[in-house]
Design goal:
four-stranded antiparallel β-sheet, Alpha-Beta Plaits, disordered C terminus, flat, alpha+beta, single chain
Length: about 140
């Protein structure tokens, strides 16, 4: 899955920006092949006033469907509308989406944190009290480990 993003900088004239943006958005939403649209309005930053004001994300199945959308009549009209904003007031980005359902990337357990069949046998026999404390998930350890 691909994501086409437009990052809008803080506008000098918020009312003018909103008028152009709403016209642009209406045109962009008519583009074919959009699987999902997400608008993010930036409300702040721990580093002070953020440089980014708004982010528009358009999701596509593939590069081909994205290009078809951007080159469509609606895509071309949206691009012309976007150019009404000041030069340098936005960035266009293409990105691959890896975790579209919000999942996490599996992490391999560190070798020393993995319980082997031999460790389990030793722990079951009482031969190794330390082997019984070994866990396969390093996050699951208590502070006593």
């Amino acid at each position: 899955m691909l994501k086409f993003m437009i990052l809008f900088s803080q506008p000098e004239d918020a009312e003018r920006f909103e008028n152009v943006y709403q016209d642009f958005l209406a045109l962009a939403e008519r583009m074919p092949n959009i699987l999902r649209r997400q608008v993010v309005h930036v409300t702040g930053s721990p580093q002070g006033t953020p440089e980014i004001y708004r982010i528009l994300e358009l999701y596509f199945e593939s590069t081909e469907t994205q290009n078809e959308a951007l080159l469509s009549i609606a895509g071309q009209e949206a691009g012309k509308e976007l150019q009404r904003l000041a030069t340098g007031s936005y960035q266009l980005l293409h990105a691959d989406v890896y975790e579209e359902d919000g999942g996490s990337t599996p992490q391999a357990a560190a070798e020393e944190d993995t319980v082997t069949p031999e460790d389990n046998a030793d722990a079951a026999d009482g031969d190794s009290a330390e082997a019984a404390k070994t866990v396969s998930d390093p996050v699951a350890r208590s502070s006593a480990d």
